[in-house]
Amino acid sequence: MKSQKLDFSNARDRLLAEETFHFPKSRFAFLNDHFGLRKKHIHVLAAEPGGGKSTLVRAIIEDMENVPILFVGTEEDRQQQEIKFLKTGKREGDLSRIRFVNEREIFSCQDPRPADVKEYIRLLFVEVASSGAKIVFFDNLTTSKFFKAQRIENQELFMEEFKNFAQILEVCVFFIIHIKRDKFSKGIPSMNEIRGGQTVTMRAENLYVVGKIKIPSTGTLYDDELKFFVIVEKDRHGENTGKMYMLDYHTETASVVSDVKVNWNKFKELYDKRAKI
Q1: Chain segment 98-138, per-residue pLDDT in tens
Q2: Of 224, 230, 231, which Cα lies nearest the Cα of 273?
Q3: I want to staple 94 with a disulfide (CB 3.0 to 4.6 A). Which of 90, 154, 215, 256 is the partner?
């Protein structure tokens, strides 16, 4: 029987497509261990106000050094966003690949209806196409007038429309959102505390929750060192992983430089002990 020559051309094409589906590897294991940033996917990073999410996002953006980015703000205007990045020691030339925009510049109305939500997202992705952006960072979803946390139907429409455009234009979406917590709550934050949580978590492929804790540095509970952490609540397969990574935060530069995976059970035991104080 004559041997048949195998044709690998299709396999090579698929491999090339898979490689271009991913963005450059990040310095952070919590991203790389869970398939990294990917085109057509929605990533969500949640934290309490002041929880360190903006600091972490700036570090992730630095890792994507050759990737055009659209950074959409819902509270700060364009100049305020640029100043925040320049405060980290970046030069203006470093920001040339990042287009900053406030959602009011894209579309403004007093009381958005479903038709307004659709028009806003359409115009936002016109901005994506014209800027050539490959990643959209959206800060902060829970304060967006068009997401309207008090209207579940608007949340669902917003997420559905956003995901459709992300699929069509093959961009990665990275939502930054607040966790609304009871002021007496001291437990480990979770996706259940996200405002509009079910709508967001159902649509996201990857969900990360950021928090901070004071860890005893000399064996006592009072001589503490502030630490930031990330919990991977959900990965691309829709699994709640519960995997945790401690972030290496430098107070001198107010930046996050790396992370390391930690034992979840030991960390929770320490966190619960701290919460009782």
Answers
A1: 999 999 999 988 888 899 999 999 999 999 999 999 999 99
A2: 224
A3: 90
Is residue 151 in some structural domain?
yes
Token pair for residue 189?
Answer: 């934050």
What range does the domain containing 70 cover? 27-205
Instruction: Report which residue type is found at 157.
Output: L
Global pTM reads: 0.83
Q: Is residue 72 part of a domain?
A: yes
Tell me if 271 is assigned to some domain: no
Q: Are strands 224-234 and 243-250 parallel, antiparallel or unpaired?
A: antiparallel
- Are the C-beta atoms of residues 175 and 135 closer than 8 Å to each other? no
Residue 69 within any structural domain of the chain? yes
Angstrom distance (rounded) from CA 144 to CA 34: 28
For 108, left (φ over 0), alpha (ψ -120 to 50), or beta?
beta
State the pLDDT at residue 238: 56
**CATH number of 71's domain:** 3.40.50.300
